[in-house]
Amino acid sequence: MTSTRTFLELVCMLGGRRGGLVKSPELLVDLNPRKSEKCKARGFTVIVDGRKSQWNVVKTVVVMLQNVVPAEVSLVCVVKPDEFWDKKVTHFCFWKEKDRLGFEVILVSANKLTRYIEPCQLTEDFGGSLTYDHMDWLNKRLVFEKFTKESTSLLDELALINNGSDKGNQQEKERSVDLNFLPSVDPEMVLQTGHELLSELQQRRFNGSDGGVSWSPMDDELLAQPQVMKLLDSLREQYTRYQEVCRQRSKRTQLEEIQQKVMQVVNWLEGPGSEQLRAQWGIGDSIRASQALQQKHEEIESQHSEWFAVYVELNQQIAALLNAGDEEDLVELKSLQQQLSDVCYRQASQLEFRQNLLQAALEFHGVAQDLSQQLDGLLGMLCVDVAPADGASIQQTLKLLEEKLKSVDVGLQGLREKGQGLLDQISNQASWAYGKDVTIENKENVDHIQGVMEDMQLRKQRCEDMVDVRRLKMLQMVQLFKCEEDAAQAVEWLSELLDALLKTHIRLGDDAQETKVLLEKHRKFVDVAQSTYDYGRQLLQATVVLCQSLRCTSRSSGDTLPRLNRVWKQFTIASEERVHRLEMAIAFHSNAEKILQDCPEEPEAINDEEQFDEIEAVGKSLLDRLTVPVVYPDGTEQYFGSPSDMASTAEHIRDRMKLVNLKRQQLRHPEMVTTES
C-alpha cells in the first residue's frame, strides 16, 4: 500500500506540474471489488497522456516509473498527440529498453487504447465507461492515513496523561503544574478531521463526479468507516477525561495563583500603602500647599489603583470559582474573598477620606484667599480720599462700597462654613489612624484653621469701622452737593422769575379794576421770588456748615451767593419799577374814570381844571416811564417787554387821555355839544 501511494503521488505531481494527466486502469481494478486478485497479479498498466506535453516530460515520467515501481508495472501506454513528435526527438526506442526498464512501453493514439485495455477499465477521457474520481480517492486515502496516525499517537498520549493524573492526583496538589504534559497535537483538530473523514466515507456519491452517476464504495472505504468510528469513540472518551484532568489542574493552579496574589495585595496595602497614608496628615497653609499635597495624594492613589485593579480581577476570579460549586474549595475561597475585600475597602475608605479632607482644605484656602483679596480691595477704596465730581458719582461710589462690604460678609460666612466643615472632618481623622496618635498633628491643623478665620474676622471688623466713617462722610458730601445743586437751581428759578417779570408782566390794565388785579398778582409773584431767594440763602448757609464739617471748600458757594444776590437785586429793582407803573396806572385810570363818568351830583368836581391837569400830568409821566429802561446797579439796562408791547400800552393810555381831553372840551363849551347833537 505504501509503494502504491508513493507511485500515485509521483504521477499526480508530474501530471499536475506539466499539464499531462496520468491514468492507471489496472490500479482502478485494484480498488474495484469486482476484479479478481488474479488480474491484479499481472501488474499495472500505466497510461501516460502526452497529448498536451513535450517529449522530454513523457520521457521523464517513464524514467521515474522505472526508478520507483518497476516490478509493479507491466505495460506503459504513452498516448501520443495528433501531430507526433519529431523523429529526432523520439529516436529513443522504448521496445529496445524493455529489459533495462523492466516493463514494456508503447506509443499509441487515444482512439486505439481499447486494443490494449478494456473500455470498462478506461475513463471517459480515453473513450471508456469507467466512473472514477482518482483525486477524490487519493485525498480520502491520505486523510485516512493521517487521521489514523495522529489519532493513534494522540490516544497513547492522552491515556498516559490521564492515567498519570489518576495516580498522582494527591502529589500534584502539592507541586506546581508541569507545562510539558500537553499532547503533541490538538485533540479538537484531530476530532474534527475524523468527523469530516467519516462524513465523506459515508457519502454515496463522489463529491467531484460529473453527471450524477452513482457508484458503490470500494473495499478499503467500507473497511475504513468502522475503524474511523472506533478511533473517534476512543478519542472522545480519552479527550473527555483529559479535559476533566486539565480542568482540575487549571482550577488548582488558579487557586494557588489567587492565594499568592491575594497575599501580595493584602501585604502591600497593610504595609507600604498604609505607611504612605500615615505619613500624610497635613492640610497645607495655602492653596499652593494644598495643591501640592493633593498631587502627592494622587500619586499615592495611582499606586493603590494598580493594586485595586488586581483586587477587582481577583474578586471576579474568586466569584467564578465560587459559582463552579466545588465544596472542597468554597470555605477557602470565601475566606480569601472576605479578607481581600476587608483590606481593600478599608484602604479605599482611607484614601477617599484623605482626598475629601484635602479637597475641603483646598476649598477653605480658596475661600480665604478670595476673602483676603476682597478685604484688600475694600481697604484700598477706603484708603483713597474721596474726590467725586458730583452727587451721582458719590452715590455710585457709596453703592459700590456697600456691595463690596456685603460681598465680604458673604465671603466670611462662607469661610466659617468651610472652616467648620473642615474641623469636623479633622475631628474624625483619628478613626482610621491605625493606632497612630494624630492629636498633635490635628492640633496644628485646627489652630491654623481657627487662626485664619479669626484673622479674617478682625480684618473685616476694621473695614466695617472704616466703612461707617466713609459712609457718613459720603452722605454729608451727597447732602453738600445736593445743597449746592439746589442753591444753583434757586438762582436759576429766580433768574427765570426775573425774565418772566420783564417779558410777560408788561400789561398795565384797561381800567382801574384790572390794574388793581394785576398789582395784586404781581405782589404774589414777588412773594414767590422772595421764597425762592430765602430758600437759596438757606441752602448756601447749609453748604457752609457741611464744608466746615468735611473740612473742605465748597465749589459753588463762592460764586452762587453773589449770583443769587445779584439776581435778587435785579429782581427787586424790576419789581419796584413794575409796582410804580401799576400804581401810576391805577391813579390814572381812577381819575380818568371819574371824569369820564357822568356825575351830575358832583359838578364842581368835574369842573375842576386841576383834576384834568393832574390826569394829563400822570398820563404823560406814565408814558415817559414806559420809555425808560430798568437800570441795574452794574449799569446794565433792561426794558419791560418788546417795543411793540410798550407801543400798544402807550397807545391805550393816549386814547384814554384823548377821551379825557374831549370831556374837558365838552365841559368848557357845552353849547358845542348841543349844536353837535
TrEMBL record:
UniProt KW keywords: Repeat
InterPro entries: CRAL-TRIO_dom, Spectrin_SESTD1
Gene3D superfamilies from the UniProt entry: 1.20.58.60
GO molecular function: phosphatidylinositol-3,4-bisphosphate binding; phosphatidylinositol-3,5-bisphosphate binding; phosphatidylinositol-3-phosphate binding; phosphatidylinositol-4,5-bisphosphate binding; phosphatidylinositol-4-phosphate binding; phosphatidylinositol-5-phosphate binding
The organism's place on the tree of life at top rank: Eukaryota
All copies of domain CRAL-TRIO, residue ranges: 1-134
Pfam families registered for this protein in UniProt: CRAL_TRIO_2 (PF13716), Spectrin_SESTD1 (PF24915)
Family: Belongs to the SOLO family.
The protein's role, per its UniProt record: May act as the primary docking protein directing membrane turnover and assembly of the transient receptor potential channels TRPC4 and TRPC5. Binds phospholipids such as phosphatidylinositol monophosphates, phosphatidylinositol diphosphates (PIP2s) and phosphatidic acid, but not less polar lipids including phosphatidylcholine, phosphatidylserine, and phosphatidylinositol. The binding to PIP2s is calcium dependent. Might be involved in the plasma membrane localization of CTNNB1.
Summary of subunit composition and partner proteins: Interacts (via the spectrin 1 repeat) with TRPC4 and TRPC5 (via CIRB domain). Interacts with CTNNB1.
Name of the featured protein: SEC14 domain and spectrin repeat-containing protein 1
Native species: Papio anubis
Organismal lineage: Eukaryota, Metazoa, Chordata, Craniata, Vertebrata
Gene name of the encoded protein: SESTD1
